[in-house]
Amino acid sequence: MEDGVDLAVVGGGVVGCAIAAEASARGLSVALLEREPGLGRGGTARNSGVLHSGLYYRPGSVAATACVRGQALCYELAAALGVPHRRTGKLVVAHDDAELEALDALLANAAASGARDVERVTGGRAAQLEPAMRQPLGALWCPHTGIIDAPALASALAARAARGGALVAVGAAVLGAAPSAGGTRLDTGRGPILAAQVVNSAGLGAPAIAALLGDEAPTLWPCRGDWYALRAQRPPARLVYPVRAAGQTGLGVHVCLDLGGGVRLGPDARFTADADLGTPPPSTLLDAFRAAGERLLGPLPPGALRWDGAGVRPRLRGPDDPGPVEFRIERGRSGALHLFGVESPGLTAAPALAELVLQRIVA
Length: 363
Known about the structure:
- By secondary structure, this protein is α+β, with helices and mostly antiparallel strands.
- The chain has two domains: about 150 residues, FAD/NAD(P)-binding domain (3-Layer(bba) Sandwich), CATH 3.50.50; about 150 residues, D-Amino Acid Oxidase, subunit A, domain 2 (D-Amino Acid Oxidase, Chain A, domain 2, 2-Layer Sandwich), CATH 3.30.9.
- The chain contains eight helices and 20 strands.
- Strands 1, 2, 9, 10, 11, 12, 19 and 20 form an eight-stranded mixed sheet that branches. Strands 13, 15, 16, 17 and 18 form a five-stranded antiparallel sheet that branches.
- Helix 1 links the parallel strand 1 and strand 2.
- Helix 1 packs parallel to helix 5 and helix 1 packs parallel to helix 8.
- The radius of gyration is 21 Å and the shape is elongated.
- The mean pLDDT is about 95.
């Protein structure tokens, strides 16, 4: 850890691992620093695993462009690295006239963002694509949306970085930072390291890392999302999403699949200061999830839902600002490059964000 490197990446989630892999592939000496005892144990481990198509984000924004490019790159990486994944397809369904209008607006936004092959389909066609759901009036069909093992992707990217000579250090929390000849000295739980350049990809912890480096950071709003496992007699084979309601913080409770054949509902989106993700939500949330699930799938039998954990998004927009997701890539006074607000679709965008970061580093 006492040797100097061209680049230190702080944060061993899927985005940090992607940056380390990209930098290593370009011939830079790299140290990937993760405070936890293993990689991908934060937001990456609690991710839905969805590879998004890019419907919801402001056209031309970092989130939109990185999502669209990142989806294609994720499929390429998954095939090359042997990461489990499946191209399931996704339906965004409308059940009334107002939702049909919102569906048209979403389709226009997707087209402006460059989302691939998204099409408007009738309710009948949607029901053919997913017979297990309640038939809608209309839907958007996103054939390239899929699911991936997010922790496995992070590990595979870190392994690719290591094969390129990168130092991958877990249990290496950054405890202090100071300018030094030739770059920045980082004091970590595994010892000091000198880095010519630093990338801060620490998720919810990014503002704290920025502060250690002497840089300003925006407020990140912790936004909790809960999941409920669904026991279904007829499990759906596609992802099924509602139309995002105006002013809604998240995308709405939706039907999500995992690679083991499980089905979950969620996540919702609630701003909270409670970081104890092992604490179940209020019992009243079960009723809200049941109602959301039945709107998408039809009646659910008693006992069909069981709480299945939660995660926290590092949102740049607070409770009074329900606008679209934005990512910020900013250079601080220290010279470090900071990634702020990388929530969903951060998994999908990870390899494209790595490209953007490396463009900024070598510029």
